[in-house]
Amino acid sequence: MSKKTRKSPQRKAADATAGPNPRQPCPCGSGKRYKACHGAGDDVIVLDPFRDLAAAPDLIAMREFVPSALAPLTLADAGKKLAAGRTAQVATVLPNASAALVRGNGEALIGMQVQTRTGDISTDLGRALRWALTAEPGEQLPVAGAALGDPVRLQDLLVADAPLDVTVHTDFSWWLDPGTEATPEMTATLERANSVIMPTDLVRADGVRSAYWTDTGEKAHIRWLRPEPEDRLLPALARLLAREELDLGEGSRFVGAFRAHGLLVPVWDVDKEMHVKEWSAPAEAFANRLGSALVSLDSSPVTDAERRARDSIIGRQVTLR
């Protein structure tokens, strides 16, 4: 039987500079081994690209279904060094679906609703943000890809525990650079973009974040991106369903949930005649019920009725349209 040999100091030093161990968990936090994640190249799909970012729920909403919104980004030290005093914002979509642009005043903007160039949306956005923090005013980046240099993720450039302060807009007038007049071409572009916006707004209340009300024409919905891990959130939702407490009050109906980039998103149909502000109190009450249900999971086991409720929720697959 062969004996294990100790590594020489030279071997240890070489290992320390060789990069992540292919057999160890990937630094991105996906839970996969490095060789099966970022160590395999840009084609690997990362299912939870915004992991460990407090901004994750709103970043996902801005990518998937919020039509027009802006939010300032809180840059970490690495981002600040690139920016040299420049500010940055994330946008739902930029003119021509660009990956990034720099306003005349030097402000950097990156777009969420862009064509994905790698399997990791965070890498695409990180590259776009790095470009925007150093590009000249007036420049525009059509797409972000490997041509922009070594991979950099949003997690490398942003403060992890900083949430987004999202401002939802009713149109795309913010596309215009402040102090400039729209050309006939831009006016036409704005009119086309504005014509397809579905009324959308945040449900604002204490303890309520990332809950978005939308009027699709035939119906109105509230889609609430939850930060909790699915293995915690599902049994808590099931506990409320078993108690018939999963609605948002009168005029609402829980219709199911969908998964988006690592998070579970419960969805309710709501009375479209009610203003979004009228859902603030019901949403706050639900947030309190859900918080209590999450806490109770640590001391009270899941019942048979709650297991059946959980299966019912899993069976209600909601499709984004």
From TrEMBL:
Residue limits of the DUF5926 domain? 49-321
Q: Which Pfam families match?
A: DUF5926, SEC-C
Q: Where is the composition biased (Basic residues)?
A: 1-10
The segment annotated Disordered runs over: 1-30
The molecule here is called DUF5926 family protein
Q: Which organism is it from?
A: Pseudonocardia eucalypti
Upper classification of the organism: Bacteria, Bacillati, Actinomycetota, Actinomycetes, Pseudonocardiales
